[in-house]
Amino acid sequence: MYELKKEKRLCKNREYQVVYRRGKSYVNRLAVLYVLKRSPKQPARIGFVTGKKIGCAVERNRCRRLMKEVYRLHQFELANGVDLVLIGRSSLKYAGYAQAERSILQLFRQAGILRKNEMP
């Protein structure tokens, strides 16, 4: 029920590049979100990115796990027909789950891709 299946992920570099080039970006202190609209019949797909500026592999993996957990718990609130790339920024490594959740949900609201518009 809460797993991230292959058809809901961006897998190829080419897919990421299309979202970067044609998508719209939304930024806050902890993360950057790129959104590319697609056909509403297709499921939402997402990719998670952490750059080397964040730190060593342990810190990058922790940031990716944080972003994936927020997405996992809120994936059914997102609209269909979008490709998303969520990029962790260096301040994400100091954030706890609650702060990361608040920040990422704020980006989803800014992008207008949440089906429900209430605060958690």
From TrEMBL:
It is an enzyme of class 3 (hydrolase). Keywords: Endonuclease, Hydrolase, Nuclease, RNA-binding, tRNA processing. It catalyses: Endonucleolytic cleavage of RNA, removing 5'-extranucleotides from tRNA precursor. InterPro entries: Ribosomal_Su5_D2-typ_SF (IPR020568), Ribsml_uS5_D2-typ_fold_subgr (IPR014721), RNase_P (IPR000100). GO terms for cellular component: ribonuclease P complex. One of its GO terms (biological process) is tRNA 5'-leader removal. The keyword Hydrolase applies. Coiled coil: none annotated. Its EC number is 3.1.26.5. GO terms for molecular function: 3'-tRNA processing endoribonuclease activity; ribonuclease P activity; tRNA binding. Belongs to the RnpA family. Consists of a catalytic RNA component (M1 or rnpB) and a protein subunit. RNaseP catalyzes the removal of the 5'-leader sequence from pre-tRNA to produce the mature 5'-terminus. It can also cleave other RNA substrates such as 4.5S RNA. The protein component plays an auxiliary but essential role in vivo by binding to the 5'-leader sequence and broadening the substrate specificity of the ribozyme. This is Ribonuclease P protein component. It comes from Megasphaera stantonii. The gene is rnpA.
